[in-house]
Design brief:
Blueprint (H helix, E strand, L loop, with lengths): L2 E5 L7 H12 L4 E6 L12 H13 L5 H17 L7 H12 L4 H20 L2 E2 L16 H13 L4 E2 L4 E3 L5 E3 L5 H11 L4 E6 L20 E3 H9 L10 H7 L3 E5 L8 E4 L12 E14 L9 H11 L4 E3 L6 E7 H4 L3 H12 L3 E14 L9 H11 L6 E4 L5 E7 L3 H12 L5
Parallel strand pairs: 1-2, 1-7, 2-4, 3-4, 7-9, 8-10
Antiparallel strand pairs: 5-6, 9-10, 11-13, 11-14, 12-13, 14-16, 15-16
Helix pairs in contact: 2-3, 2-5, 6-7, 7-9, 10-12, 13-14
The structure holds aspartic acid (ASP).
Amino acid sequence: MKKVVKFGGSSLASAEQFIKVGKIIKADKERCYVVPSAPGKRFSADTKVTDMLYGCYALAEEDKDFSGELKAIRERYQEIIDGLKLKLSLDEEFKVIEKNFKEKAGDNYAASRGEYLNGIIMAAYLNYTFVDAAEVIFFKDTGEFDAEKTNEVLSERLAGCANAVVPGFYGSFSDGRVKTFSRGGSDITGSIVAKAVKADVYENWTDVSGFLVADPRIIENPAVIEVITYRELRELAYMGATVLHEDAIFPVRQQGIPINIRNTNAPEDKGTWIVGSTCQKSRYVLTGIAGKKGFCAVNIEKDMMNSEIGFGRKVLQAFEENGISFEHVPSGIDTMTVFVHQDEFMNKEQKVVAGIHRLADPDSIDIESDLALIAVVGRGMKSTRGTAGRVFAALAHANINVKMIDQGSSELNIIIGVTNDDFEAAIKAIYDIFVVTQL
Ligand code: ASP
């Protein structure tokens, strides 16, 4: 068995955290490839090293003195090195970084040094081989990740290392310039490494014990999801539930490698398994609930809409022409509603309305704002009678008016529209009926 283990910034924010991580890795000899993030926050008011690097480099870009900021970054690493009692000096590395900052190597290069330096420390601490991500992870000139070239080079390189540390978050263009993924991108690196070494598991270590059934800001101490499929995860992540970078599932998904989300501060917790498919039923019929506020519903009416071929296309064209993506399109016999993000739509509202009039000639258009969408997601719903009934009974009992219902054809989710004001109460009502009453 081979495991790839990725540790997030909070897991590597200090020497104490490094020691926990070292113990986790040494506890299982199958944990042979390690992907570290940059040191994150040690306490809530702290600053992540990645953000310190962006700030420091912004000064360099403006030809301002950045020595104080670079020194503060250096101290973060020195504190870790001293705490681990390592005989490691980053003097040369910092000389190179200072020089490259002065030569304006770019903010991607600057940000990537967070993971790069942490990777050097991690490799020294574990006595693993350090593999610079710039030599094995590639981007095309268009800025897109080059999956093919990366897999070829990375798998060959790691085939020669029984144990290695590959820093997360960055790679390089073919001319050697460093490029980073978007924020939180070390998750993607972990997934890419797992694919390259054909790992049995990709363990993603963070500071929570897995995906939660609902948002802890709304539900106190929500249950942890034990097993979730990639498709369910996509649905929940889309609706705002985040633990893992969205793009991290694609490389491992192709290879059927499961992801196990784990907690560095509670390593005995089993965490959440993210898998391709499973016969394991969710404990509560539903797997998770997530949602977002801030939607608008554009209601379009036209008599005999049902028999007018192309009506829907014309309406959606008005949104497309204004660069607005739509979220859901529930429809009736003579009505059609388009749900859009309010902040995206607001400035272009009148243009879109005019476009719909011009293209589709409706009888009336009416706009409703301040709506929220809630996704109730669960692979178990397909085979369980009465799920929708329970959801809506719970909402009715909580005095919540349902504005929209959309059950995806996959029967994987039910999307419910309510007002922004009813959002939290609706999530509580659904959580209570499925989870609390089952406990
Ligand atoms: N350090 C980077 C960030 O803060 C990448 C990561 O941690 O995944 O976004």
